[in-house]
Amino acid sequence: MSQNVSPNPTYDVIILGASGFTGKYVIREALKFLNVPSSPLKSLAIAGRNSSKLFQALQWAAHPKPPPQIPILTADTTDPSSLRHLASQAKIILNCVGPFRLYGEPVVEACADSGCDYLDICGEPEFMERMEVKYHDKAVDMGSLIVSACGFDSVPAELGLMFNSRQWLPPAVPNQVEAYLSLESDKRIVGNFATYESAVLGVANADKLQELRRSRPKRPRPAIPGPRPPKGPLLDHLKEVGVWAVKLPSADAIVVRRTLSCLAENPGGLPGVNESTEQIERREAFWSTIKPAHFGVKIASKSLLGVIRFITVGVFIGLFGKTGIGRWLLLKFPSLFSLGWFRKKGPTEEEVASATFKMWFVGQGFSDDSLALQGNRKPDTEIITRVMGPEIGYLTTPIILVQCALILLKERDNLPKGGVFPPGIVFGATDLQDRLQQNGISFDVISKNTI
Ligand SMILES: NC(=O)c1ccc[n+]([C@@H]2O[C@H](COP(=O)([O-])OP(=O)(O)OC[C@H]3O[C@@H](n4cnc5c(N)ncnc54)[C@H](OP(=O)(O)O)[C@@H]3O)[C@@H](O)[C@H]2O)c1
User: Fold this and answer.
1) Three-class SS of residue 224?
2) Which atom of ligand 1 is found nearest the CA of 251?
3) Cβ atoms within 10 A of the Cβ of 303, count?
4) pLDDT (tens digit, 9 = 90+) per residue, 297-352?
5) Over the stretch 395-451, which tens digit does the pLDDT of each residue have?
6) Among the atoms of ligand 1, which is closest to the Cα of residue 154?
7) Residue nearest ligand 1's atom 48 by CA
8) In a 3-state reduction of DSSP, which class is residue 131?
9) b or e along 167-176 (b: 16 or more beta carbons within 10 Å of the residue's beta carbon)?
10) Which terminus of the chain faces fewer neighbouring Cβ atoms within 10 Å, N or C?
Protein backbone atom coordinates (compact mmCIF):
# COMPACT_ATOMS: atom_id res chain seq x y z
CA MET A 1 0.00 0.00 0.00
CA SER A 2 1.15 3.51 -0.71
CA GLN A 3 2.34 5.74 2.11
CA ASN A 4 -0.37 8.32 1.38
CA VAL A 5 -3.15 5.91 2.20
CA SER A 6 -4.71 6.51 5.55
CA PRO A 7 -4.02 3.33 7.60
CA ASN A 8 -7.26 3.50 9.57
CA PRO A 9 -9.94 5.47 7.78
CA THR A 10 -12.60 6.80 10.14
CA TYR A 11 -15.55 5.42 8.17
CA ASP A 12 -16.15 2.14 6.42
CA VAL A 13 -18.44 3.85 3.94
CA ILE A 14 -19.27 7.43 3.00
CA ILE A 15 -22.30 7.98 0.76
CA LEU A 16 -21.63 11.05 -1.39
CA GLY A 17 -24.64 12.76 -2.96
CA ALA A 18 -26.76 11.27 -0.21
CA SER A 19 -29.31 14.10 -0.46
CA GLY A 20 -30.16 13.15 -4.05
CA PHE A 21 -33.18 11.18 -5.18
CA THR A 22 -31.20 7.93 -5.38
CA GLY A 23 -28.86 8.90 -2.54
CA LYS A 24 -31.63 8.89 0.05
CA TYR A 25 -32.70 5.38 -0.99
CA VAL A 26 -29.03 4.31 -0.73
CA ILE A 27 -28.93 5.64 2.85
CA ARG A 28 -32.09 3.66 3.63
CA GLU A 29 -30.57 0.47 2.23
CA ALA A 30 -27.23 1.00 4.02
CA LEU A 31 -28.94 1.58 7.39
CA LYS A 32 -30.34 -1.97 7.20
CA PHE A 33 -26.78 -3.28 7.47
CA LEU A 34 -25.22 -0.75 9.84
CA ASN A 35 -24.03 -2.31 13.09
CA VAL A 36 -26.03 -5.45 12.53
CA PRO A 37 -24.26 -8.57 13.85
CA SER A 38 -22.42 -10.33 10.98
CA SER A 39 -22.44 -7.17 8.84
CA PRO A 40 -19.00 -5.70 8.15
CA LEU A 41 -20.50 -2.19 7.99
CA LYS A 42 -19.61 -0.64 11.34
CA SER A 43 -19.37 3.05 10.54
CA LEU A 44 -21.20 5.16 7.99
CA ALA A 45 -21.20 8.83 7.09
CA ILE A 46 -23.17 10.78 4.53
CA ALA A 47 -21.78 13.64 2.49
CA GLY A 48 -22.81 16.35 0.07
CA ARG A 49 -22.88 20.08 -0.34
CA ASN A 50 -25.93 20.93 1.75
CA SER A 51 -26.06 19.74 5.37
CA SER A 52 -29.71 20.49 5.97
CA LYS A 53 -30.77 18.56 2.83
CA LEU A 54 -28.54 15.71 3.95
CA PHE A 55 -30.18 15.69 7.38
CA GLN A 56 -33.63 15.62 5.77
CA ALA A 57 -32.54 12.70 3.60
CA LEU A 58 -31.30 10.87 6.71
CA GLN A 59 -34.60 11.52 8.46
CA TRP A 60 -36.53 10.21 5.46
CA ALA A 61 -34.29 7.15 5.20
CA ALA A 62 -34.58 6.25 8.90
CA HIS A 63 -38.37 6.83 9.10
CA PRO A 64 -40.34 5.69 11.13
CA LYS A 65 -37.32 5.47 13.46
CA PRO A 66 -35.58 8.68 14.56
CA PRO A 67 -32.50 9.54 12.47
CA PRO A 68 -29.41 7.74 13.80
CA GLN A 69 -26.32 9.63 14.92
CA ILE A 70 -24.48 9.52 11.61
CA PRO A 71 -21.88 12.15 10.74
CA ILE A 72 -22.91 14.56 8.00
CA LEU A 73 -19.86 15.71 6.05
CA THR A 74 -19.56 18.59 3.63
CA ALA A 75 -18.00 18.04 0.22
CA ASP A 76 -18.51 19.66 -3.14
CA THR A 77 -17.31 18.20 -6.42
CA THR A 78 -16.15 21.68 -7.44
CA ASP A 79 -13.80 21.75 -4.43
CA PRO A 80 -11.06 19.09 -4.87
CA SER A 81 -9.67 19.62 -1.35
CA SER A 82 -13.07 18.74 0.17
CA LEU A 83 -13.06 15.50 -1.87
CA ARG A 84 -9.49 14.63 -0.88
CA HIS A 85 -10.44 15.16 2.76
CA LEU A 86 -13.47 12.92 2.27
CA ALA A 87 -11.45 10.19 0.57
CA SER A 88 -8.85 10.27 3.34
CA GLN A 89 -11.56 9.42 5.88
CA ALA A 90 -13.22 6.49 4.10
CA LYS A 91 -12.51 2.91 3.12
CA ILE A 92 -15.15 3.22 0.38
CA ILE A 93 -16.95 6.15 -1.19
CA LEU A 94 -20.34 5.36 -2.74
CA ASN A 95 -20.82 8.08 -5.30
CA CYS A 96 -24.41 9.04 -6.11
CA VAL A 97 -23.64 12.45 -7.64
CA GLY A 98 -24.64 12.51 -11.31
CA PRO A 99 -24.72 12.99 -14.22
CA PHE A 100 -21.25 11.51 -13.82
CA ARG A 101 -19.99 13.12 -17.01
CA LEU A 102 -20.50 16.48 -15.26
CA TYR A 103 -19.56 15.73 -11.67
CA GLY A 104 -17.85 12.35 -11.42
CA GLU A 105 -14.22 12.82 -12.40
CA PRO A 106 -13.01 14.86 -9.39
CA VAL A 107 -14.40 12.17 -7.08
CA VAL A 108 -12.62 9.37 -8.96
CA GLU A 109 -9.43 11.43 -8.96
CA ALA A 110 -9.59 12.05 -5.20
CA CYS A 111 -10.13 8.34 -4.54
CA ALA A 112 -7.36 7.24 -6.90
CA ASP A 113 -4.99 9.77 -5.30
CA SER A 114 -5.75 8.69 -1.77
CA GLY A 115 -6.10 4.92 -2.20
CA CYS A 116 -9.75 4.94 -1.14
CA ASP A 117 -12.08 2.46 -2.89
CA TYR A 118 -14.84 3.90 -5.05
CA LEU A 119 -18.17 2.51 -6.27
CA ASP A 120 -20.81 4.37 -8.23
CA ILE A 121 -24.19 3.97 -9.94
CA CYS A 122 -23.14 5.47 -13.24
CA GLY A 123 -24.75 4.30 -16.48
CA GLU A 124 -22.64 6.48 -18.79
CA PRO A 125 -20.17 4.45 -20.89
CA GLU A 126 -18.04 7.41 -21.98
CA PHE A 127 -17.42 8.41 -18.35
CA MET A 128 -16.51 4.88 -17.34
CA GLU A 129 -14.08 4.34 -20.20
CA ARG A 130 -12.50 7.78 -19.78
CA MET A 131 -11.94 7.11 -16.07
CA GLU A 132 -10.28 3.81 -16.95
CA VAL A 133 -7.93 5.53 -19.40
CA LYS A 134 -7.03 8.35 -17.03
CA TYR A 135 -6.93 6.72 -13.60
CA HIS A 136 -6.32 2.98 -13.96
CA ASP A 137 -2.56 3.10 -13.47
CA LYS A 138 -2.75 5.54 -10.58
CA ALA A 139 -5.47 3.42 -8.95
CA VAL A 140 -3.32 0.29 -9.29
CA ASP A 141 -0.35 2.08 -7.68
CA MET A 142 -2.39 3.51 -4.86
CA GLY A 143 -4.46 0.39 -4.16
CA SER A 144 -7.75 2.09 -5.00
CA LEU A 145 -10.44 -0.12 -6.52
CA ILE A 146 -12.68 1.97 -8.75
CA VAL A 147 -15.83 0.31 -10.03
CA SER A 148 -18.58 2.16 -11.87
CA ALA A 149 -22.00 0.80 -12.87
CA CYS A 150 -22.72 -0.92 -9.52
CA GLY A 151 -26.45 -0.33 -9.90
CA PHE A 152 -29.19 -1.54 -12.20
CA ASP A 153 -26.75 -0.34 -14.82
CA SER A 154 -25.11 -2.83 -15.20
CA VAL A 155 -24.99 -5.55 -12.55
CA PRO A 156 -28.17 -7.47 -13.54
CA ALA A 157 -26.82 -7.61 -17.11
CA GLU A 158 -23.34 -8.68 -15.99
CA LEU A 159 -24.46 -11.31 -13.48
CA GLY A 160 -27.43 -12.31 -15.66
CA LEU A 161 -25.15 -13.10 -18.58
CA MET A 162 -22.83 -15.10 -16.31
CA PHE A 163 -25.78 -16.98 -14.83
CA ASN A 164 -26.99 -17.90 -18.32
CA SER A 165 -23.45 -18.82 -19.35
CA ARG A 166 -23.08 -21.20 -16.40
CA GLN A 167 -26.13 -23.20 -17.57
CA TRP A 168 -24.23 -24.29 -20.71
CA LEU A 169 -22.56 -27.44 -19.46
CA PRO A 170 -19.69 -28.82 -21.57
CA PRO A 171 -19.64 -29.69 -24.38
CA ALA A 172 -22.51 -27.17 -24.93
CA VAL A 173 -21.49 -23.56 -25.63
CA PRO A 174 -23.49 -20.34 -26.04
CA ASN A 175 -23.04 -18.14 -29.07
CA GLN A 176 -25.42 -15.27 -28.39
CA VAL A 177 -27.36 -14.02 -25.38
CA GLU A 178 -30.04 -11.42 -25.92
CA ALA A 179 -31.50 -9.78 -22.80
CA TYR A 180 -35.12 -8.55 -22.84
CA LEU A 181 -35.91 -6.00 -20.14
CA SER A 182 -39.51 -5.51 -19.11
CA LEU A 183 -40.56 -2.87 -16.56
CA GLU A 184 -43.86 -3.54 -14.84
CA SER A 185 -46.13 -1.68 -12.44
CA ASP A 186 -49.78 -1.15 -11.67
CA LYS A 187 -48.95 2.54 -11.29
CA ARG A 188 -46.93 4.79 -13.62
CA ILE A 189 -43.30 3.86 -14.29
CA VAL A 190 -41.28 7.02 -13.68
CA GLY A 191 -37.58 7.90 -13.38
CA ASN A 192 -35.93 10.96 -11.89
CA PHE A 193 -34.66 13.82 -14.05
CA ALA A 194 -30.91 13.15 -13.53
CA THR A 195 -31.12 9.77 -15.28
CA TYR A 196 -32.89 11.36 -18.25
CA GLU A 197 -30.31 14.17 -18.27
CA SER A 198 -27.50 11.57 -18.26
CA ALA A 199 -29.09 9.90 -21.32
CA VAL A 200 -29.53 13.20 -23.17
CA LEU A 201 -25.91 14.20 -22.48
CA GLY A 202 -24.80 10.72 -23.55
CA VAL A 203 -26.35 11.26 -27.00
CA ALA A 204 -24.82 14.74 -27.23
CA ASN A 205 -21.37 13.31 -26.53
CA ALA A 206 -21.58 10.04 -28.45
CA ASP A 207 -18.71 11.16 -30.71
CA LYS A 208 -16.41 11.57 -27.71
CA LEU A 209 -16.75 7.90 -26.83
CA GLN A 210 -15.81 6.88 -30.38
CA GLU A 211 -12.86 9.31 -30.32
CA LEU A 212 -11.68 7.91 -26.99
CA ARG A 213 -11.81 4.34 -28.28
CA ARG A 214 -9.96 5.23 -31.48
CA SER A 215 -7.18 6.79 -29.39
CA ARG A 216 -6.57 3.54 -27.48
CA PRO A 217 -4.98 0.23 -28.42
CA LYS A 218 -7.60 -2.39 -29.34
CA ARG A 219 -8.41 -4.78 -26.50
CA PRO A 220 -8.51 -8.52 -27.10
CA ARG A 221 -11.91 -9.80 -28.13
CA PRO A 222 -13.25 -12.84 -26.37
CA ALA A 223 -13.22 -15.99 -28.50
CA ILE A 224 -16.89 -16.80 -29.09
CA PRO A 225 -17.60 -20.16 -30.74
CA GLY A 226 -19.62 -20.08 -33.96
CA PRO A 227 -20.43 -17.42 -36.53
CA ARG A 228 -21.46 -13.88 -35.56
CA PRO A 229 -25.28 -13.88 -35.30
CA PRO A 230 -27.23 -11.83 -37.85
CA LYS A 231 -28.42 -8.37 -36.72
CA GLY A 232 -32.07 -9.39 -36.50
CA PRO A 233 -35.19 -7.25 -37.03
CA LEU A 234 -35.64 -3.79 -35.55
CA LEU A 235 -38.82 -4.93 -33.87
CA ASP A 236 -38.56 -8.30 -32.20
CA HIS A 237 -41.28 -10.58 -30.84
CA LEU A 238 -40.21 -12.97 -28.10
CA LYS A 239 -42.87 -15.68 -28.39
CA GLU A 240 -41.79 -17.65 -25.32
CA VAL A 241 -42.55 -14.70 -23.07
CA GLY A 242 -45.10 -12.88 -25.20
CA VAL A 243 -43.34 -9.51 -25.47
CA TRP A 244 -42.39 -7.12 -28.22
CA ALA A 245 -38.95 -5.56 -28.02
CA VAL A 246 -36.57 -3.07 -29.54
CA LYS A 247 -32.82 -2.48 -29.00
CA LEU A 248 -32.06 -0.53 -25.80
CA PRO A 249 -28.99 1.67 -26.17
CA SER A 250 -28.12 1.44 -22.47
CA ALA A 251 -24.68 0.94 -20.92
CA ASP A 252 -25.24 -2.76 -20.25
CA ALA A 253 -23.92 -4.31 -23.46
CA ILE A 254 -20.85 -2.05 -23.38
CA VAL A 255 -20.07 -2.85 -19.75
CA VAL A 256 -20.50 -6.58 -20.37
CA ARG A 257 -18.14 -6.35 -23.35
CA ARG A 258 -15.53 -4.66 -21.14
CA THR A 259 -15.82 -7.49 -18.62
CA LEU A 260 -15.47 -10.10 -21.38
CA SER A 261 -12.39 -8.31 -22.75
CA CYS A 262 -10.89 -8.20 -19.29
CA LEU A 263 -11.60 -11.92 -18.96
CA ALA A 264 -9.92 -12.59 -22.31
CA GLU A 265 -6.83 -10.82 -20.92
CA ASN A 266 -7.11 -12.59 -17.54
CA PRO A 267 -8.71 -16.00 -18.14
CA GLY A 268 -8.60 -16.87 -14.44
CA GLY A 269 -10.16 -13.55 -13.41
CA LEU A 270 -8.37 -10.74 -11.57
CA PRO A 271 -6.02 -11.91 -8.80
CA GLY A 272 -6.88 -10.68 -5.31
CA VAL A 273 -4.49 -8.55 -3.32
CA ASN A 274 -3.89 -11.22 -0.70
CA GLU A 275 -5.67 -14.44 -1.64
CA SER A 276 -5.37 -17.85 -0.02
CA THR A 277 -4.56 -20.84 -2.24
CA GLU A 278 -8.15 -22.10 -1.82
CA GLN A 279 -9.50 -18.74 -2.89
CA ILE A 280 -7.30 -18.70 -6.01
CA GLU A 281 -8.66 -22.15 -6.90
CA ARG A 282 -12.25 -21.02 -6.26
CA ARG A 283 -11.82 -17.91 -8.39
CA GLU A 284 -10.21 -19.76 -11.28
CA ALA A 285 -12.84 -22.51 -11.12
CA PHE A 286 -15.61 -19.92 -11.31
CA TRP A 287 -14.19 -18.13 -14.34
CA SER A 288 -13.58 -21.42 -16.14
CA THR A 289 -17.39 -21.87 -16.22
CA ILE A 290 -18.01 -18.51 -17.93
CA LYS A 291 -18.20 -18.78 -21.69
CA PRO A 292 -18.31 -15.51 -23.62
CA ALA A 293 -21.20 -14.79 -25.99
CA HIS A 294 -22.39 -11.97 -28.24
CA PHE A 295 -24.58 -9.86 -25.97
CA GLY A 296 -27.26 -7.24 -26.52
CA VAL A 297 -30.16 -5.74 -24.55
CA LYS A 298 -33.68 -4.96 -25.71
CA ILE A 299 -36.48 -3.12 -23.96
CA ALA A 300 -39.67 -5.14 -24.03
CA SER A 301 -43.36 -4.56 -23.62
CA LYS A 302 -46.41 -6.82 -23.71
CA SER A 303 -48.07 -4.49 -26.21
CA LEU A 304 -46.84 -3.33 -29.57
CA LEU A 305 -47.99 0.17 -28.64
CA GLY A 306 -45.65 0.09 -25.61
CA VAL A 307 -42.68 -0.59 -27.88
CA ILE A 308 -43.74 2.14 -30.28
CA ARG A 309 -43.66 4.53 -27.30
CA PHE A 310 -40.06 3.44 -26.52
CA ILE A 311 -39.10 4.06 -30.13
CA THR A 312 -40.74 7.50 -30.08
CA VAL A 313 -38.80 8.57 -26.97
CA GLY A 314 -35.60 7.14 -28.48
CA VAL A 315 -36.17 9.17 -31.64
CA PHE A 316 -36.83 12.36 -29.64
CA ILE A 317 -33.65 11.96 -27.56
CA GLY A 318 -31.57 10.75 -30.51
CA LEU A 319 -32.57 13.63 -32.78
CA PHE A 320 -32.98 16.52 -30.35
CA GLY A 321 -30.00 15.48 -28.20
CA LYS A 322 -27.59 16.32 -31.02
CA THR A 323 -28.18 20.10 -31.06
CA GLY A 324 -27.98 22.74 -28.35
CA ILE A 325 -31.53 23.99 -28.84
CA GLY A 326 -32.84 20.43 -29.04
CA ARG A 327 -31.13 19.55 -25.75
CA TRP A 328 -32.55 22.67 -24.15
CA LEU A 329 -36.05 21.58 -25.17
CA LEU A 330 -35.50 18.00 -23.99
CA LEU A 331 -34.20 19.11 -20.61
CA LYS A 332 -36.79 21.85 -20.16
CA PHE A 333 -39.74 19.51 -20.82
CA PRO A 334 -38.64 16.05 -19.65
CA SER A 335 -42.15 14.74 -19.08
CA LEU A 336 -43.32 15.77 -22.54
CA PHE A 337 -40.39 14.34 -24.51
CA SER A 338 -40.15 11.15 -22.45
CA LEU A 339 -43.91 10.61 -22.73
CA GLY A 340 -44.18 10.77 -18.94
CA TRP A 341 -41.36 8.33 -18.10
CA PHE A 342 -39.13 10.99 -16.48
CA ARG A 343 -40.17 13.76 -14.14
CA LYS A 344 -38.24 16.66 -12.60
CA LYS A 345 -39.49 15.56 -9.18
CA GLY A 346 -39.00 11.85 -9.77
CA PRO A 347 -41.49 9.10 -8.91
CA THR A 348 -43.63 9.09 -5.78
CA GLU A 349 -42.86 6.53 -3.07
CA GLU A 350 -45.95 4.57 -4.15
CA GLU A 351 -44.78 4.52 -7.77
CA VAL A 352 -41.36 3.25 -6.66
CA ALA A 353 -42.88 0.61 -4.38
CA SER A 354 -45.21 -0.77 -7.04
CA ALA A 355 -42.66 -1.14 -9.86
CA THR A 356 -40.72 -4.30 -10.70
CA PHE A 357 -38.45 -5.52 -13.48
CA LYS A 358 -37.94 -8.77 -15.31
CA MET A 359 -34.94 -9.38 -17.54
CA TRP A 360 -34.99 -12.52 -19.69
CA PHE A 361 -31.68 -13.78 -21.03
CA VAL A 362 -32.28 -15.78 -24.17
CA GLY A 363 -29.12 -17.74 -24.91
CA GLN A 364 -28.66 -19.55 -28.20
CA GLY A 365 -25.74 -21.84 -28.89
CA PHE A 366 -24.56 -25.32 -29.71
CA SER A 367 -25.17 -28.59 -27.91
CA ASP A 368 -21.56 -29.50 -28.74
CA ASP A 369 -18.75 -27.01 -29.27
CA SER A 370 -17.52 -29.00 -32.30
CA LEU A 371 -20.75 -27.96 -34.12
CA ALA A 372 -19.72 -24.34 -33.74
CA LEU A 373 -16.71 -24.99 -35.94
CA GLN A 374 -18.82 -26.31 -38.83
CA GLY A 375 -19.02 -23.28 -41.11
CA ASN A 376 -22.29 -21.42 -40.97
CA ARG A 377 -24.10 -23.93 -38.81
CA LYS A 378 -27.03 -22.42 -36.87
CA PRO A 379 -27.39 -22.77 -33.08
CA ASP A 380 -29.34 -25.88 -32.04
CA THR A 381 -29.93 -25.10 -28.36
CA GLU A 382 -31.71 -22.34 -26.45
CA ILE A 383 -31.43 -21.65 -22.73
CA ILE A 384 -33.61 -18.96 -21.20
CA THR A 385 -32.85 -17.56 -17.76
CA ARG A 386 -34.35 -14.61 -15.92
CA VAL A 387 -33.29 -11.97 -13.41
CA MET A 388 -36.17 -10.33 -11.60
CA GLY A 389 -36.44 -7.72 -8.87
CA PRO A 390 -38.04 -4.57 -7.50
CA GLU A 391 -38.06 -1.13 -9.12
CA ILE A 392 -34.79 -0.56 -10.99
CA GLY A 393 -33.51 2.93 -10.13
CA TYR A 394 -34.27 3.43 -6.45
CA LEU A 395 -34.72 -0.07 -5.00
CA THR A 396 -32.62 -2.47 -7.08
CA THR A 397 -29.79 0.04 -7.58
CA PRO A 398 -29.31 0.74 -3.84
CA ILE A 399 -29.53 -2.99 -3.05
CA ILE A 400 -26.75 -3.73 -5.55
CA LEU A 401 -24.57 -0.80 -4.54
CA VAL A 402 -24.76 -1.62 -0.85
CA GLN A 403 -24.09 -5.34 -1.41
CA CYS A 404 -21.03 -4.50 -3.54
CA ALA A 405 -19.79 -2.28 -0.68
CA LEU A 406 -20.36 -5.04 1.90
CA ILE A 407 -18.35 -7.46 -0.25
CA LEU A 408 -15.52 -4.94 -0.47
CA LEU A 409 -15.54 -4.56 3.31
CA LYS A 410 -15.67 -8.29 3.94
CA GLU A 411 -13.48 -9.67 1.20
CA ARG A 412 -11.01 -6.97 0.32
CA ASP A 413 -8.11 -9.47 0.30
CA ASN A 414 -9.82 -11.51 -2.44
CA LEU A 415 -10.30 -8.52 -4.73
CA PRO A 416 -7.75 -6.73 -6.93
CA LYS A 417 -5.37 -4.38 -5.15
CA GLY A 418 -6.53 -1.49 -7.30
CA GLY A 419 -7.50 -0.29 -10.75
CA VAL A 420 -10.53 0.84 -12.73
CA PHE A 421 -12.77 -2.07 -13.71
CA PRO A 422 -16.34 -2.92 -14.68
CA PRO A 423 -18.36 -4.64 -11.91
CA GLY A 424 -18.67 -8.09 -13.51
CA ILE A 425 -14.97 -8.88 -13.50
CA VAL A 426 -14.55 -7.64 -9.91
CA PHE A 427 -17.64 -9.16 -8.30
CA GLY A 428 -18.45 -12.07 -10.65
CA ALA A 429 -16.60 -14.67 -8.60
CA THR A 430 -17.77 -13.34 -5.21
CA ASP A 431 -21.08 -14.18 -3.52
CA LEU A 432 -22.79 -11.11 -5.04
CA GLN A 433 -25.45 -13.18 -6.80
CA ASP A 434 -26.34 -15.00 -3.54
CA ARG A 435 -26.48 -11.70 -1.71
CA LEU A 436 -28.79 -10.18 -4.33
CA GLN A 437 -31.04 -13.24 -4.10
CA GLN A 438 -31.21 -12.82 -0.32
CA ASN A 439 -32.27 -9.23 -0.90
CA GLY A 440 -35.09 -9.74 -3.38
CA ILE A 441 -33.37 -10.02 -6.78
CA SER A 442 -33.86 -13.52 -8.13
CA PHE A 443 -32.02 -15.57 -10.77
CA ASP A 444 -33.95 -18.43 -12.37
CA VAL A 445 -33.59 -20.94 -15.16
CA ILE A 446 -36.77 -20.75 -17.28
CA SER A 447 -36.20 -23.31 -20.02
CA LYS A 448 -33.63 -25.40 -21.91
CA ASN A 449 -34.69 -26.48 -25.39
CA THR A 450 -33.46 -27.86 -28.65
CA ILE A 451 -34.24 -25.46 -31.49
N1 LIG B 1 -27.29 2.77 -12.41
C2 LIG B 1 -28.55 3.03 -12.29
O3 LIG B 1 -29.36 2.22 -12.63
C4 LIG B 1 -28.96 4.36 -11.70
C5 LIG B 1 -30.10 4.43 -10.91
C6 LIG B 1 -30.43 5.66 -10.35
C7 LIG B 1 -29.64 6.78 -10.61
N8 LIG B 1 -28.55 6.66 -11.40
C9 LIG B 1 -27.69 7.82 -11.69
O10 LIG B 1 -27.34 8.44 -10.47
C11 LIG B 1 -27.15 9.82 -10.67
C12 LIG B 1 -27.94 10.61 -9.63
O13 LIG B 1 -29.33 10.48 -9.91
P14 LIG B 1 -30.42 11.14 -8.95
O15 LIG B 1 -31.72 10.93 -9.61
O16 LIG B 1 -30.24 10.66 -7.56
O17 LIG B 1 -29.99 12.67 -9.04
P18 LIG B 1 -30.32 13.90 -8.08
O19 LIG B 1 -31.59 13.66 -7.34
O20 LIG B 1 -30.24 15.12 -8.91
O21 LIG B 1 -29.14 13.87 -7.03
C22 LIG B 1 -27.87 14.36 -7.32
C23 LIG B 1 -27.06 14.46 -6.05
O24 LIG B 1 -25.80 15.01 -6.41
C25 LIG B 1 -25.53 16.10 -5.56
N26 LIG B 1 -24.67 17.08 -6.22
C27 LIG B 1 -24.90 17.75 -7.37
N28 LIG B 1 -23.89 18.58 -7.63
C29 LIG B 1 -22.99 18.41 -6.63
C30 LIG B 1 -21.74 18.96 -6.33
N31 LIG B 1 -21.18 19.90 -7.11
N32 LIG B 1 -21.07 18.55 -5.23
C33 LIG B 1 -21.63 17.61 -4.42
N34 LIG B 1 -22.82 17.06 -4.63
C35 LIG B 1 -23.49 17.46 -5.73
C36 LIG B 1 -26.89 16.69 -5.23
O37 LIG B 1 -26.76 17.49 -4.08
P38 LIG B 1 -27.89 18.57 -3.63
O39 LIG B 1 -28.90 17.75 -2.92
O40 LIG B 1 -27.14 19.49 -2.76
O41 LIG B 1 -28.43 19.19 -4.88
C42 LIG B 1 -27.66 15.41 -5.01
O43 LIG B 1 -27.37 14.89 -3.74
C44 LIG B 1 -27.57 10.11 -12.12
O45 LIG B 1 -26.41 10.16 -12.91
C46 LIG B 1 -28.39 8.89 -12.49
O47 LIG B 1 -28.34 8.61 -13.87
C48 LIG B 1 -28.20 5.47 -11.94
Assistant:
1) coil
2) 1
3) 10
4) 999 999 999 999 999 999 999 999 989 999 999 999 999 999 988 999 999 999 99
5) 999 999 999 999 999 999 999 999 999 999 999 999 999 999 999 999 999 999 999
6) 1
7) 121
8) helix
9) bbeeebbbbb
10) C
